Structures are given as C-alpha cells and as structure tokens.
Amino acid sequence: MKIKVLGSSGAELPGHRPPSYLLNGKILFDAGSLTNILPTKDLLKIEHIFITHTHLDHIMGIPFLADNLMFSKRRHKTKIIGIPPVIEAIRRSVLDGSIWPDFTAIPNTHEAILELKELEPGRSIKIGVYMITPYEVNHPVPAAGYLVEDGRGRRFFYTGDTGPTDATWEQIGGKQIHCLIIDVSFPNRMEEFAIKTGHLTPQLLKKEILKIKSLPEKIYITHPKPQYLKTIKTQLQHLKLRNVGLLRNGSTVIV
Length: 255
Ligand SMILES: [Zn+2]
Ligand SMILES: [Zn+2]
Hints:
By secondary structure, the chain is α/β, with parallel strands linked by helices. Helix content is 24%, strand content 24%. A seven-stranded mixed beta sheet has the order 6-5-4-3-2-1-14. A hairpin with a 7-residue loop joins β8 (130-136) and β9 (144-149). One zinc ion binds next to α2.
C-alpha cells in the first residue's frame, strides 16, 4: 500500500498542512488538505473519503472538493464515510445549506456530488482489495481511527486524533498492525492539557505502544502542533523506540 501524505500537521500555517492521507490515489483518510494540494484530475480519482471526526482540521477539504467536482466531468459520487455521529454532524452542520450548499442533493439527489455513508465502529467495509474498519478512539467528540488491510494481509492503522485509550487496542486485539500512524500533538510538559483535549505526547505515545499486542514495524506521527515540532522531535528521539518517525508533506509511506 502506498499512502501519500497530503498533510500531517496539527494546524494550518505556511509549510504545515492539516491531516489527509491518500491511499493508492483513490481512498482518502481525513480531508484537512485536499483542494489546496491536488489538481482536479487527481481529485476525480478519489471515490471514498473516510473521516475520523468532525473537527474542522479533518473535514475542511470536503466543501471545496464538492464545489470543484460540480464543474468537472465527474462520473461517480464521492462517498464520505464515518461512524454515525460523525456523518450526522456533517449532515447537520456542514452540508445543511446554511454555511455551504447541500451537495448531497446537488444537482439532484440521484446524481448528487456527495453521498454520506455511516459505518458502525467494528464493522468492515470492502473497497477493492481493501478491508477498512473503524475503531473508536479517545477524543472530546465522537472519533474513530481506521484499520486498513489489503489483499496480502498488510495492515495500517490511522488513529486520527486520540488521547490515551485502552479500548481501541483491546478491540483491534492480536491483529498485526504493520504501520501505525498515531497522534502526537504536544510535548511532554503539556501532558495534562494533551489528556484533556484528547491527544498524546511522546511519553504518552510510549505507554500506548506498550498496550499494542504486536509491535508495529513502523510508527509515524500525525498531528504535531507546529509550535512544538522541534521539542516533539527531540523527545521522540529520547524515547529510543525503533522505527518512529515524523511525516513530511508530499512523502509516501509504503506499507
Ligand atoms: Zn480533533
Ligand atoms: Zn485535529
């Protein structure tokens, strides 16, 4: 599996873009960076967008994507998929016609640009050779990470935003995660704030990794706040964990 990093930051600033990960050009995980990165021909290839939660830095590409697709020679509906409270909030707060047109009914409900689709936590959906399953994580709003397995049994898990969690790892159980993309937003001294806001620090990351039954081959960090990036990088190195790395915009992760 090839995962292109469109954005991996916990904020938007010049040189820092909110999270979006594109699997083999077709399936997107979170929509923090989208129309500002990809040309229309690439946007047209994306058929499914999995959303971890409704915080703006994870969904803000959706309204602009719909607007761009409206004026292209589109052949498919783009499906926005998430756990039920996430889909409900997008329907109620983003595509309700008050801040942006309702693209689930434009130009008409039959040929609409977007389709919203609910996926229960723990239930899998098969898209091509990929089996994709949401697992709830710990964040102040309903949120789920996604476990993705390809036809060869290779797996990655993208947490989206999460604080410390036991339940997520228990539910994933003994399944080997080959590549883990996990939240580390704040430095160690902000542990209390990180826990309160549903995020991790390098030290908290170490504790999470010990909860996973089989150690991932590679661990990548998503969502670091740019203001603390240097400190986070140093503190990650001090963990002395093998195969932990920060992500770079535009790079590709191979699973
Ligand atoms: Zn969040
Ligand atoms: Zn976020």
